[in-house]
Amino acid sequence: MLFKQQVLLRQKLFVLGSLAIGSLLYLVARVGSLDRLQPLCPIDGRFGPRSQDEIPLRALQFKRGLLHEFRKGNATKEQIRLHNLAQQLPKAIIIGVRKGGTRALLEMLNLHPAVVKASQEIHFFDNDENYAKGIEWYRKKMPFSYPHQITIEKSPAYFITEEVPERIYKMNSSIKLLIIVREPTTRAISDYTQVLEGKERKNKTYYKFEKLAIDPNTCEVNTKYKAVRTSIYTKHLERWLKYFPIEQFHIVDGDRLITEPLPELQLVEKFLNLPPRISQYNLYFNATRGFYCLRFNIVFNKCLAGSKGRIHPEVDTSVITKLRKFFHPFNQKFYQITGRTFNWP
Fold it and tell me: Which intervals hold domain Sulfotransferase (predicted)?
């Protein structure tokens, strides 16, 4: 009889313990939704004196789960007003470069509790049809955020589209602009690889990279090939500098973001005048995927889509050498303009 009572008691304790642990994990997931659990200080003096409406970072972290609900369209106007939320125009834009790591950069910056990201590429400034819809259409594409959060969007086509610098300048002449670059030849091959994969998915054939990158008539680099043109960074940057001073740009090393992301993210935090909040805790190397994944809290982790980190096709070494020689003078000028040097061959 005593033995049966002990068994029943242990079973009850086990059930109660399981319920307690389940409740704790649920609370952790809600409170730390899309963010990590660690002590956070209020926004410091770099943001200037705190206004009456300003929300400290601890509160931003606590309420970030609410933003997810509002993004799903579940909020009423009264709830939006009550929580002092708004769809704000971006204060920073990742303008490029395609296949430089723009998605990885945006997702990693979203680890910061004072950053809110637009989940999709808006293509407002590079698409005439979208641009004709007006700035209010663009603003309504932005996520809900608190007054002192920074909204960031990314559309890599902005960097190479001629009309975009003037259009962004007309919206906000003091906006901060992020450009993430990789070694130009590697970036061009990555660009080709993405297009190739899309063709293969549709059972279509496609030229080899060598045939596209090298003009068969002159045996020189084919500057009409878009993947090559995009990698001439200085050519595009000079067009942007007609509207914005170099101080409004920050250049991110896309190659280093893959292998050693934290120092690059800390530089971006500083550029955006954000208090340092992203730490090594938030980044862990996934050996299976071969790159870093994101840890928002003890419950929620995230890796980039499986399409990231595609295996590049083998390219003739003589073509790679020719491309690197071609890009070299443009790279030197890029270093000079930006004040940042890269270990590109």
Answer: 90-334
* Residue 321, marked binder: no
Q: Indicate the pTM of the whole model.
A: 0.79
292 is in an annotated binding site: yes
Place of tokens 């045996």: 219
- Mean pLDDT of the chain, nearest integer: 83
Is 133 designated active site?
A: no
Edge-first strand order for the sheet with 301-302 is 283-286, 291-295, 301-302
Q: How far apart are CA 56 and CA 45, in angstroms?
A: 12
Number of Cα atoms under 13 Å in the Cβ half of residue 231:
29
SS3 72: coil
- On whether 306 is known to bind a ligand per the annotation, the reply is no
DSSP 154-219: E-GGGGG-TTHHHHHHHH-TT-EEEEEE--HHHHHHHHHHHHHHHHHHTT-----HHHHHB-TTT-
Residue 46 contacts residue 15 (beta carbons within 8 Å): no
Query: What type of residue is 203?
Result: N
The stretches in the chain having pLDDT less than 50 are 2-3, 7, 15, 24-63
Tokens representing residue 93 in the block: 């834009």
- The answer to whether the annotation marks 234 as part of a ligand binding site is no
Which one of 72, 77, 91, 99 is the catalytic residue?
99
- 239/250 Cα distance (integer angstroms): 16
